[in-house]
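Below is a concrete protein record.
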Amino acid sequence: MHKIKNIIYKNKILLSLYYSFKAINNYFKINIIKFIKDSYKYVKDIIKMKKHPDFKINYLYPCINDNTSNTPLNIDYFYQDTWAINKIFKEKPKKHYDIGSNAKTIGILSQFTNTYMVDIRPIPVKLKGLNFIKGDICNLPFKNNSIKSLSSLCVIEHIGLGRYGDKLDAFGSEKAIKEIIRVVKKSGNIYISVPVFKQNTIFFNAHRAFTRKYILKQFNNCKLIEEKYIYNREMKPKYIKNNNTYGTGLFWFKKN
């Protein structure tokens, strides 16, 4: 399987076709063969339960997509979110600001510290401890050197590609990083995650991927405190420079 993936990742046309097919499949969210199998099992279960004298079916409410062999989980998000929350908890900031990260993760974080969530898309919830601020990561509504603790997990790589309604911008990611550094105080903590690859690459319009060297260059006026990498569903301590498959890099910086 890894050999096949390596062949795909070395060929731009094959890789583009792979992601295009994946996007179409995710959009419709239908695996025909699995759908037929699960539907057949569902009908069999109905017939079986209707024969039971003490069991009455009041309404039909099919949930056939939940019959999976493993618990559905985005491995990268699981690792990166638990990593970031662990660091933030240990630092114990009185206020924490997040830009565009997973709303569920930030909601949990808000129950331990006063949290300000910044995003261009409002969230339809009200929760004590969670404060929503509508804002653009390339034009943050904060003063220079005003924030002590800030996170932005799997966000920077999307900026400027139009995926989430933002404007097309060839340097969107770089502008976002400059804004993050601008608003953070001296000695303030910055927690970010981005896709990493052997070279800077655009997977349009999903995301960009960066080399470790390029990310460190963008944060050259910050001190790197910790870095971790997620490759093939495992957390690794080091960046793999010549890896044909991209991973996710987790970075904790302190502003100089």
